[in-house]
Amino acid sequence: MGKKITTLRDLIGAIKDKASQSKAAFISKPSNLSLHLAVLRATSHTPSTPPDDHHVSALLSLGNSSRATASSLIVIIMDRLHRTGDSTVALKCLLIIHHIIKRGPFILQDQLSVFPATGGHNYLKLSAFRDGATSATWAISAWIRFYARYIETLLFTSRILGYFLSSFSCSSEKDKQEEKISSFLNSDLIRDVDSLVQLIEETCKVPDSLLLEGNKLLYEVIGLLGNDYLSTVNELLSRLSEFKERLNCLSFGESVELGCILKRLEECKERLCVLFTVKKPSIELLWNLVNELSEKIENLKIGKEGPKLLTFGKASESARFDNRVMKFGDSIRFSSGRYEMNNLSLMIVQGKKMEKVQ
């Protein structure tokens, strides 16, 4: 077994692992036996010990052989996750899924993304997970429920972006996306930013627990969350930088929506600084950009810095509303000069009428 057994719970876990391996050998198809054993080895009952890296690597390698094999492997992992009532096994299954997202081969990631589900809500079906064996496992159950929700949100965000957020194997897709961001519609950029902020909000819900001390499994979880956070920061930077360039081309409704999303992000800052103490230039740059955009959007809303608004005397609220409506449908590929000239002509005419009245 390779691990020292120190408690009765460890002994029972070791017996369960042996029994599971024997059961797999008895009921599995010959073609799937190696998959079952790989999953069992990577998700043993050994407490507070992350899956051995060579077991994880072996599992990822098996999933890279064919689409059928990758599909079977995902089904086996999910079956293991949904059948267990043991907090250690459940947490290790979630770690395996997270490792697939981060460093798995594309074919295995693809099968994970299309695994039968109704969507991002309760995708992993662990919202009711409870391990009441001890007070410690009861507390760890809260981490499992959080971690499942986080991975569900990570999968949802990755579907929105079109690639797995922090994946090594998706680097080429990310590069293509970076090149295309300038051609995105405003609505597409807002959708992306909103999904990324949702992921950050879910990250901030990590349980406050002293169990983190000395628990290598939970340290592994926090480490993966930290890597995802840095990836999310980079994704947000590229999109918010684009918004900075086109801020004056946003409709009133779009600027309000973006402002609300940025406010949600700012509300996460304090919690993030506690969770992740790492200092990175990209993180500082993000918060500076968020502050700058928030201030400019607020100025737009109160009329101090409108999108090239021209006023003659006291412009009525209805005139400002007409300007917003016309700009709402503007394509990001074209400047709004045509509408600005129309507005200019209209305002000049209105100005002359006012002079005659006077």
From TrEMBL:
It comes from Nicotiana tabacum. PROSITE patterns: ENTH. Keywords: Coated pit, Cytoplasmic vesicle, Endocytosis, Golgi apparatus, Membrane. Residues 27-165 form the ENTH domain. One of its GO terms (molecular function) is 1-phosphatidylinositol binding. GO terms for biological process: clathrin coat assembly; clathrin-dependent endocytosis; vesicle budding from membrane. Pfam families: ANTH. Its main location: cytoplasm. Gene3D superfamilies: 1.25.40.90. It is found in: Cytoplasmic vesicle, Clathrin-coated vesicle; Golgi apparatus; Membrane, Clathrin-coated pit. Transmembrane segments: none annotated. One of its GO terms (cellular component) is Golgi apparatus. This is Clathrin assembly protein At4g40080. PANTHER family: CLATHRIN ASSEMBLY PROTEIN, OS09G0468150 PROTEIN. The lineage of its organism: Eukaryota, Viridiplantae, Streptophyta, Embryophyta, Tracheophyta.
